[in-house]
Amino acid sequence: RTEEGAATFCNLEFETGRAPSNPTEQALEALKQRDTTLSSRYAVEEASDTSPVSLTNVCEAYCLVDEKWETGESTLSFCVVGASGDLAKKKILPALFALYNQGMMPKQFTIFGYARSKLTHDEFRELVNKCVSGMKASEDKVAYFLSRCFYQPGQYDALEDFETLNTLMTEQERSVEKANRIFYLSIPPQIFTAVAQNASRAASSSQGWTRMIVEKPFGRDTESFKQLAAELYEHLQEEQIYRIDHYLGKELIENLTVLRFANLVFEPLWCRDYIRSVQVIFSEDFGTEGRGGYFDNYGIIRDVIQNHLLQIMALFAMEQPASLDSEDIRDEKVKVLKNMKQVSLEDCVLGQYKGTTNGDKTLPGYLEDETVPKGSTTETFAACAVFIDNPRWDGVPFLLKAGKALSSRVAEIRVQFRHVPGNLYRNKLGIDLDRTTNELVIRIQPDEAIYLKVNNKIPGLGLQIDTTRLDLSYKSKYDALLPDAYERLILDCINGDRRLFIRADELEVAWEKFTPLLEEIEKKKVQPELYPYGSRGPLGAHYLAAKYRVRWADLEDDE
């Protein structure tokens, strides 16, 4: 500090042209002035970080190409293919309006609906109005948004209908030089190829880029995925395809890399030396509810574990990427999946919920759903232990669990740390050290939160130890309404940000790890263990965890 003071002292002499009368005091005063200046500068920078979010500063934050959306030099035509379906009405159209309501849509934008339903422009606007009626917005904003909505009825395999759609889109794009287009394929996977072919041939932008958002499922196994990918590649480039997994758009998943790589305290702990197990958990408190026909063709492994949970695990376990560039991040995720050992049937538990009675209410079993084939053995619950064979995670079990008709609705990551070696307070913590081990919980939904379970002395005379939580609850900390996952992912697609979308090689490796397991289940006709609707799942899941000397932490009392 004396050297810094002397240097600052010399600078003051040079700038003012006179030497201070008392060099020591002046040097100290100069340091105070420097600290004041730095504090002021950092305060300004901190204040600037809280400026309103816009399309421009989102692009700047992730080093994306600025499309000049806010100046009106480019226009966006967003076409929802399958616009009359449930996903469009419940998620996509409300997400588009929410982005507009927050000022996050381009200045020049148009929404197009395309489906087989025979609707006029006004009837489509009425449909959109019902979809956004419960959202907080001024009447003027709703009216303007509806004025930018248009509809084109047509068949998904009819090229001439897409030519008519292209004419409609071109009419709305006349006022600008650059017209960009996004097609959101909210349709069954068996017609992806037909739509991709017709849209690329007849409705691609001739004066800008064209992108397509594709919903899961991305095949049923390795071969079906490769076939789907090859068919799409006949009409689209990889950089045009945005394979969406809405779980990657959740706020806590977006925060996962920030939590790990922006906080020095976690990096040394993020390895096999300190972590005993990692649990990625997804549970729903309802069954198929009349959608069993679709679900029965896939099951919970294909529907949730092979995509949602595996993607979360890859983000959690990856090494620090070279940058925030989407390709750098996805490269690291692929490395994790390639290092993952093949999932074996011995490390997997299957379950299927059965009917039960709760008071006066009868809860139907999976096979009682009229849309489910009789005698189906499709799993509605699955738990599996997977291992990543690299120096960081060697020997650490990653326990993935997903199920329907369970006792609660939750999605979370639970990181169980190892026991304290030579624990000084062993006699005070009790004989069951598993209940007092440190645990980091990242709750994805509902009630988004991050908390760390620690042991703490209870205030007062004597020595009593309690397990408590260092808690960051998003509701209590932040006033802002958390954006829906579809809002974030649609915005990312608009900006060309592919970080949270799935690359083809990621999916191929993921299928390669699970396809042998799925084929073995089907070949051996493995019978799922029955569990009551509203329970904690099949007993076999507890034996699986015990096999690796851990417990399912979501079944413990955190309070």
In short:
The chain has 559 residues and is α/β, with parallel strands linked by helices. The chain has helices spanning 2-16, 23-49, 55-61, 86-101, 121-132, 139-147, 159-172, 192-202, 222-233, 251-254, 256-261, 292-296, 299-317, 326-339, 426-429, 474-477, 485-495, 504-524, 540-547, and strands spanning 74-81, 108-115, 149-153, 178-185, 210-215, 241-244, 275-283, 348-354, 356-358, 361-363, 381-386, 398-403, 410-417, 439-445, 449-457, 465-473, 529-532. The longest helix is centred in the first third of the chain and has 27 residues, at 23-49.
Shape: globular
Sketch the major β-sheet.
Answer: 9 strands, mixed
Strand segment count? 17
Radius of gyration: 28 Å
Mean pLDDT: 84
| Residue share in helix | 25-40%
Q: What structural class is derived from the secondary structure elements?
A: alpha/beta
Strand order of the largest sheet: 16-15-14-13-7-12-11-8-17
- How far apart lie the N and C ends? 47 Å
Strand content: 15-25%
Count of alpha and pi helical runs: 19
Task: State the low-pLDDT regions, or none.
Answer: 1-18, 37-51
Topology:
Layout: H1 2-16, H2 23-49, H3 55-61, E1 74-81, H4 86-101, E2 108-115, H5 121-132, H6 139-147, E3 149-153, H7 159-172, E4 178-185, H8 192-202, E5 210-215, H9 222-233, E6 241-244, H10 251-254, H11 256-261, E7 275-283, H12 292-296, H13 299-317, H14 326-339, E8 348-354, E9 356-358, E10 361-363, E11 381-386, E12 398-403, E13 410-417, H15 426-429, E14 439-445, E15 449-457, E16 465-473, H16 474-477, H17 485-495, H18 504-524, E17 529-532, H19 540-547
Parallel strand pairs: 1-2, 1-4, 2-3, 4-5, 5-6, 7-12, 8-17
Antiparallel strand pairs: 7-13, 8-11, 9-10, 11-12, 13-14, 14-15, 15-16
